[in-house]
Amino acid sequence: MSYISVEGVSKRFGSTQALDDVSFEVPQGEFVVILGASGSGKSTLLRCMNGLTKPTAGSISINDTEITEPHPEIAMIFQQHNIIGEMSAYSNALTGSLQRSGVLESVFQFHDRAEKLEALQALETVGLLDEANQRASQMSGGQQQRVGIARALVQNPMTLLADEPVASLDPGSSQQVMEYLLRASDDRKLTTVVSLHQVNLARQFGERFIGLKNGQVVFDGYAEEFGLDVIDEIYDSPEHVGDDGDERDEEAAVDSQDEVTA
Ligand SMILES: Nc1ncnc2c1ncn2[C@@H]1O[C@H](COP(=O)(O)OP(=O)(O)O)[C@@H](O)[C@H]1O
Ligand SMILES: [Mg+2]
Question: Looking at 195, 210, 229, which one is the last position of a domain?
Answer without folding.
Answer: 195
